[in-house]
Amino acid sequence: MKRDIRRSDCPVHCGLNLLGDRWTLVVIRDLLFTDKSTFTELLNSPEKIATNTLSNRLAKLSEHGLIKQATRDSRYKLTDKGFDLVPALMELAVWAEKYDATVVSVAEAYQQYQKDPQAFIAGLKAARKAS
Question: What is the pLDDT of residues 32-86, one digit of tens each?
Fold first, then answer.
């Protein structure tokens, strides 16, 4: 896979090099908050990602250590590094909800997250292990 060229050492720029395209956070969202874990399940998300794009994003996320693929059942799982994106995704969702009244509310999940972020993330990890 082609390496991204870093144009600066700015943390925002570096984060966007990995996560700042149209699809990467959607894939991570599905792995975090849904029972989707196979290529086909991820492909069938409502956003309708193309197969080549999904393949590319999964390879990139794997290369950077955010996901791993189980060899026995081909399911994708987030690593601890991937789960560390929960705070950023929660804040992004709250921001989107604040400025777009048509999005699905995350208020209940966000309240649980704010109350005890570590317990919230532990619950996500446990749910993903069970699925």
Answer: 999 999 999 999 999 999 999 999 999 999 999 999 998 788 999 999 999 999 9
Residue ranges of domains in the chain: 11-130
Q: Using alpha carbons, select from 31, 43, 40 the residue that is nearest to residue 83.
A: 31
User: 24-33 and 11-19 are packed helices; what angle lies between their axes, rounded to 10 degrees?
Assistant: 80
Range 11-130: architecture per CATH: Orthogonal Bundle (1.10)
Q: Could you tell me the sign of the dihedral formed by the alpha carbons of 19, 21, 23, 26, in that order?
A: positive
In angstroms, the CA 123 to CA 44 distance is 25
In the numeric block, the tokens 């409502």 are attached to 46
pTM of the predicted structure, to 2 decimals: 0.88
Contact 74, 95 (CB under 8 A): no
Report the first-to-last Cα separation within the chain, whole angstroms: 30
